[in-house]
Design brief:
- The structure is a homodimer.
- Chain A contains 13 helices and 10 strands.
- Chain A is of the alpha/beta class.
- Chain A folds into 2 domains: 244 residues, 3-Layer(aba) Sandwich (Rossmann fold); 85 residues, Rna Polymerase Sigma Factor, Chain: A (Orthogonal Bundle).
- In chain A, the strands form 2 sheets. The first copy, chain A, has an 8-stranded mixed sheet with strand order 1-4-6-5-7-8-9-10, sandwiched between helices. Chain A has a two-stranded antiparallel ribbon with strand order 2-3.
- In chain A, strand 7, helix 4 and strand 8 form a beta-alpha-beta unit.
- At the A-B interface, helix 5, helix 6, helix 7 and helix 12 of A face helix 5, helix 6, helix 7 and helix 12 of B.
Chain lengths: 352, 352
């Protein structure tokens, strides 16, 4: 039951669907046929040592990872690596509220955790792609949360980890910020407790949600330097309407809420009874912690306080006044810094 | 017509009401009997040279200025100075949507600009208090906006100016942030386009508004260091419920919206056809620009970019991880820094 024309191969492909079967969920219940939408680039080498896994962020899909971060000559080079981009559960391409049938459709979709995604990806990686090692796991924002979860949960599989603009344990500030995003949507009478007919019924809520992303997603410096003009918009109002609202408005509200709930609760210390240092101490990957200088909700200080618990790690902040949404690739200098940092990381010798 | 029990002498007094008569408004129309609620401390000296004006911020009243910033031994010392704290229009104590009669009541209240407040205060200062000089104008946030407006509009009257955590021309980022506050309230069906019966009808909207203040009012570092615990709340959820929601929920929504609209449009360059440098060039006050290090919406960089246009000025950032709401006086070290900086400023010799 896919009634939303946004989530298509035309918009986000090419990707392939892999049914990994029944996925037990950490919050209880299960997805009967958990299906992951996966885009791959390049090919496996003979000793299966060149696989890179890229999980996706809130609202993002494999397409933006392909467009911004993957290509010949880049760190994520399909001529050298087999790059696997997995769209997260709830993304709209993989199993998600909007594309499930009756008893798990829409508002009835179960709560999903970062750990559910990572276990689903582990199934994919080990049973479908038959891999036992990943040369690198790299992702931004919720992709960083999944990267940390991978490195803690499967320390013997992850040779290198690059969490960009994200944390291993979501902060309380970030939780409240995500709450405001959620409430922007759920407060719309058209949301109707998740039982709307089409995304357009929730236009006002999605618009407020986009405006909150405008405030927190970029940075005060972004606006002071009028970066919206460099991006081709003559006013902030136009930038909000066309870029921010335009980006989010076709998305399915329940899909966004599924991801937001998951984002709020990303926490590797669930493996160690709440002991973050112990959880991060399990990581054997060479880990580059890569926050963005002007990120307003995954700020460098929060990321650095986690980095110190990771044995083979380095703090590698990336400078950009575009803040968190520099992830979109709006700042060429940001993309270049990320690329150089990932190249440096990929050149290191793995510990495991 | 005051139907809101929050705005009383018991909660915010003592203050006196001064009717300054008819106030023409910059956006058109007028307030027939513009009444300012004013709290004074200390007494005028014989040569009328010791008056200090303190305008108030969004949602704040003269009471918090008294409690946090005024007292014997402090910079704002009633034993040395005659300190005049003027509650802004829309504050709930001065002329405001909730206390006006029929044709200007509630949603019918006209749009007010920072310049309207400052002209009303000018009437008060010159015609009621018979003063031609102010030793200092000092205010935080919207109080800083009014401070700048005073220094630009009446350069021969303001000897010293101390805008704390605010700008002379509101930034585009800040405008959008205030928009999210406004929409948190107006999106509540109980708001009913401003025609609610009591503030409680807008409980959900006021709650969302308080949560947005939680995200942007403090800082990521505030939460990382669990400052809410130092403030006496055992969890962030309790902190939000009791402190943030508790603070805002008794306030009148139309009053808040009146102030928010005004805040969004604070801009001294209205006097110079949009030329900010020219407007700030008019200032003759010795001006200490005092942003707060961790302020998420009046950040130091935005304040510093204005300071360079002011002739006799110094950039005096105040360090506090409490961010913008350090203004509340939650961080004793912040209050002390402000106090020392104001003492230093008051010890300078005026140019005019």
């Amino acid at each position: 039951m896919n009634t939303n024309p946004y989530y298509t191969q035309e918009n986000h492909g090419p990707y392939e669907h892999y049914n990994i079967g029944k996925l037990e969920l950490e919050e209880g219940g299960y997805l009967e046929n958990c299906t992951l939408a996966v885009a791959t680039f390049g090919s496996l080498n003979s000793d299966l040592s060149n696989a890179i896994l890229v999980p996706t962020w809130y609202s993002g899909t494999s397409k933006i990872m392909e467009q911004v971060y993957i290509g010949p000559g880049k760190a994520l080079d399909p001529e050298k690596y087999f790059i696997i981009v997995v769209n997260q559960i709830g993304s709209g391409l993989s199993t998600s509220p909007h594309n499930q049938t009756a008893d798990q459709h829409g508002a009835c979709f179960p709560n999903i955790r970062i750990g559910d995604d990572v276990r689903a990806q582990h199934q994919l990686i080990t049973q479908i792609f038959k891999l036992s090692r990943l040369a690198l796991v790299v992702g931004g924002s919720m992709g960083a949360q999944q990267t940390y979860e991978w490195a803690v949960r499967y320390p013997d599989m992850v040779e290198r980890a690059a969490p960009i603009a994200g944390t291993a344990r979501n902060t309380e500030h970030d939780f409240v910020y995500a709450d405001t995003l959620i409430e922007a949507i759920t407060s719309d009478p058209g949301f109707n407790q998740g039982n709307y007919n089409v995304a357009e019924d929730v236009t006002d809520g999605l618009r407020r949600h986009a405006k909150l992303w405008t405030v927190m997603g970029w940075s005060t410096e972004f606006f002071r330097q009028q970066r919206h003009k460099a991006l081709g918009f003559d006013s902030v109002a136009t930038f909000i309407d066309q870029f921010m609202v335009g980006y989010f408005s076709p998305m399915d509200p329940n899909n966004l809420l599924c991801m937001a709930w998951k984002w709020q609760r990303g926490d590797v210390s669930r493996h160690t009874g709440g002991d973050l240092a112990a959880a991060l101490g399990r990581i054997r990957a060479i880990t580059y912690v890569m926050p963005i200088s002007h990120d307003m909700f995954f700020p460098p200080s929060d990321c650095q306080s986690e980095q110190k618990f990771i044995s083979h790690s380095a703090f590698k902040p990336i400078s950009s006044i575009d803040g968190h949404l520099a992830l979109f690739g709006t700042d060429a200098n940001f993309v270049e810094q990320v690329d150089l940092t990932l190249k440096e990381l990929l050149a290191t010798s793995a510990i495991i």
